[in-house]
Amino acid sequence: MGSSTAEKLQERQEEEARQKVPKDQRVSVKDMRCSNDMFLVMRMMQGNPLPPFPDFVQETLKHGYPKGLPRHQVKEHLEVAYENLRCLPDKMETSRRDPSWKVVPHELRKRLHGTWSESWYVGARVGSVCHLRKPPNKGYSNTVRHNFSNQTYTPTPMYSGTTHVAVGFVDLGTLLCADIQSGGRGEREGGEGATPQPLSFVGYELCAFAVAKTMVVWHMLCEGEASHYERAVLQVWYSSTWDLSTEALFRDAASSLLSTASSLPPPVSSILSHWADPSLSPSVPLSRARGEWLSLQSPTSSFLAGSLVRRKDRVAVGTYNLTGDFARADASAKKARGRRRAPKPRPTGSLSMFSCPDGIAPSAGLASVFSVVPFRECLQCARNMSGSATVLDGVREWLGVRLRALRERGRAGSVSVSLRLGDVTDYAVTREVSVLSPRTMSWSNVLDYVPNKVLHGLARRCGGVTCTHSGYTMNWGSVTKGASLMDYPDTKGRCQILDLALDTAKRVNKAEGLDPILRSPLPEHPFNISDLFLQYMLYPQWLGAWARAGGLEVVSGKGGERGVEGWVLGTKGDSSPLSATGDAAVYLTWGYGRVPPALPDATPHPIYGAMRQGWNRLWKLSPKGAVGGSDM
Q: Which helix (H) or strand (E) holds 167?
């Protein structure tokens, strides 16, 4: 018998507690405020004062307290976020430059994602790679449920007339941003003038919740009324609160799937039945939805308002951080001149986010729509809108454009979607995938949870030599020595890395015209800023070791036989500096036959070339830090 939701939540909390700062080492808001004030005075006395930090606490509260949340809770959350951010990165940077600074145990556990690789870490050289040697003891999907993806969507090539298999899809983001091209097998065989064949998108997921919710989203997208579908789908997909009309459409879609879909897996059918029946899943009160959303947000690591220069952006994003509201009907309502404002639709909590049958894993924290979108493209969308548009409006428009295009394809029959509950490591599922003869496959971040050689074996069995694979890894830095600033005990080298990283961040911000939008450097822990720099320097070491595990070679930008290409998303224009999960994921394209060239935008920003030169000069002066090999 499976564990209850409460038991799974307790299990996850116990695991998270092992990596957190001990309670007796945490500080109160009052203590943080005093410490920050002293630091600011010290910097002023040194003749190097910090620039003023915007008081987003008062700005957000002046805009109004969110309904459904106790005022004292909102104020405390904002104050903790403000005190945590207002002296970053300078305050933490000062301590990391101190010769007496040492890595403390809980920081090392967090850096290595546990204790299993500590013995490797102690003796490894910079650039050494320690591969995952066995699968995790417990499936990740058993204790964590993602309401939507936590990584930036990127354009994955797919071909009409072929099948794309998405492993661990979480949501439809891969299809939403797919680069669908002509020239699939079906079209080539039909010759010129042949009727275009549809793209078949087949998804496999371990998480029954992801299958059920994504089925509802696809049904609403293709079957819903044109006047309602877009806002309703965006709310179901991303928002913690819905309009009542969205809830009705959601229940109708769940009921329709139960009556029309054939042979639904029992776990998926159970979830859909729960959502379709108001007696099993009554409307979620706004206060409960807001309270549960806020409990999942960390004021010390996920509050984004302090990163923004413009007041209107800080208020919009700060309110989103507090409430999780996205694409709500009243969020963009404006009072027309000479007219009374129409009554706001009454909000209700998201059923998919806050009402699931017992036994479904609890929601993951740090959920943010900013984690799934390329920030610079969304910013351009906002610039193309009215002058009052915020970056959050730009995110809404960027997603809306792609949603409308996907709806057209779905309704026209040029894309079909089939979602299945299954573990691709099972032989029966692997065989099922191979029968589909996929032209392309995406693996999400399965690379983080399956040993390298095992994954290469699975990919070969599923797609043979004609399939092009793509995926990403978020945890590669945890198994690569040198990918974090804490890997450098030498004070001089650590300071030089900090200087290079901070300089690069400022130069990229300025070169891409982001200074009017984002603070530079961002108010983040210096680990986050320096680690992005280090990870760009060292990801080729990890990539080479990963390729060798599958008998492949790294091919850079040109494609080739039995090759793999990889790049760090955070070094390109489609990254998201406001992502709650960081910007240093490595994206890969590979194959066991011919690999097409990577997408044109896989080329890093020119500034990173100069950055690498600075890195090379640094390590020529420091032989002890020379890049090492791979511990296979």
A: strand 163-167
